[in-house]
């Protein structure tokens, strides 16, 4: 109770956060990636650490640095993020999956640099494992699992469908149609849905402030 008064409501709790993009190798010099900066995930990890939690941060390639003490695991590909998440998930009381995981990865990675021989060139891709859905199927009653949804149309319906399909407790909707939301920006605009599909709409804020809002919503579930 002392700790709660001191503002450390998550002391003794373990939190897993993922952040950043994944890079899927095409050959030794090229990859398929995305514009995720990692800022949102790092802000969430830092906020949880500030609240007293023991934080594990699994991150793809990013220039971000954490300002708190946490266990950081650097990975590159979606497959590596899946392995790391599967290792860390069972010990986590709370998991927030904010990474922008590649949906597709090359069927094969060329051992040597691909030469520009042909006029047309196509790459064969296969689906990656949905990490969040796989954690959702492993989730115990004492665990909280939070995902993100990045949408450009029918945002709310898509977000709610992901919440159900992946067995989440909360989903954070990011619409690319909102001004003030986006990959490289320092601000974000979110809407959070719970399992009863109640929605909470937040104003455009700094990613640090958005991280506080997300953590607050999670604290309400404890
Ligand atoms: N996610 C994941 N593993 C993947 C793809 C996505 O864990 N291979 C997670 C993301 O970290 C995010 C959530 O799933 O928390 C939603 O990601 P999003 O791209 O919005 O949805 P998808 O399920 O990938 O569906 P789509 O891209 O077709 O909208
Ligand atoms: Ca996706």
From TrEMBL:
UniProt keyword terms in alphabetical order: Decarboxylase, Flavoprotein, FMN, Ligase, Lyase, Magnesium, Metal-binding, Multifunctional enzyme
Cofactor, free-text remark: Binds 1 FMN per subunit.
Keyword Cell wall biogenesis/degradation appears in the UniProt entry: no
Residues of the DNA/pantothenate metabolism flavoprotein C-terminal domain: 11-220
GO cellular component, one term: phosphopantothenoylcysteine decarboxylase complex
Family, as annotated: In the C-terminal section; belongs to the PPC synthetase family. In the N-terminal section; belongs to the HFCD (homo-oligomeric flavin containing Cys decarboxylase) superfamily.
Protein name from the UniProt record: Coenzyme A biosynthesis bifunctional protein CoaBC
Species the sequence originates in: Pedobacter psychroterrae
Source lineage: Bacteria, Pseudomonadati, Bacteroidota, Sphingobacteriia, Sphingobacteriales
Gene: coaBC
